[in-house]
């Protein structure tokens, strides 16, 4: 059933995606080591699913001549100091209420925590249930037989969210992989951030959807509405971390891009939307390549232009 949850106003929210520059090409064809290739199972409705392997995707690939960083690996002292000041800013976060129920914590996550998040997502992303290129299946097939692709790589933690059925499942239907657990250190940051949005009910996240957007990454306007009726009824918030390149984030009451407001989400920002904003439409219209903090790039080898977004939810 298309169009539910992170569904879009059109089955092809954007032209079908051919993997954008740098998306997965480096490791394509590499030996798949996670054992999911041979996994065969039934989905939650006992339908036979056709498992196939996904090529591991590395968000921090080793440098090659082609992807040699445009960033200076040893940033001038001034830049480093500026980054240090930014790290310090996390202890005095700027809390902005964008609309009732939608709260923006600017530069909330320290650069050292951002580094840990990138490293952890890199490690999990290369393993079983890691990053893959989600599609919308055969019903939306392009001329080459590939389903319409979302313009991002995705990995689910805790529970699997399936774009094809707009449902949460225990395993990823395409390869039978079980989603990795949500790292406890991520949950710690979520609960601390929640304390600054104290008008909203707190969540105990059991789902985290991790998106990796490269240079051309984007995500059409949608609502997050596949969590349980109870969770949605209570307006339990979605807590979103942005790490890496900045992004143009759109939000509004309808799916109309022209009526949406735009916010630039930067590395370290946390966005919380619950209560009256739980059903807000939102999406990402553009990534600003090479805007990630120099220290983050330096310490993670996050060489791709790219942005990680983690959304924590309670089913
Ligand atoms: O990347 C973002 O900021 C938003 C991600 C999102 O809306 C989602 O994963 O449902
Ligand atoms: Fe969303």
Automatic annotation (TrEMBL):
Regions annotated as coiled coil: none
Disordered as annotated region, ranges: 1-50
Keywords: Dioxygenase, Iron, Metal-binding, Oxidoreductase
Protein origin, superkingdom: Eukaryota
Pfam families, sorted: 2OG-FeII_Oxy_2 (PF13532)
InterPro entries: Alkb, AlkB-like, AlkB-like_sf, Oxoglu/Fe-dep_dioxygenase_dom
Residue ranges constituting the Fe2OG dioxygenase domain according to the UniProt record: 204-315
Cofactor: Fe(2+)
Family: Belongs to the alkB family.
Stated name of the protein: Fe2OG dioxygenase domain-containing protein
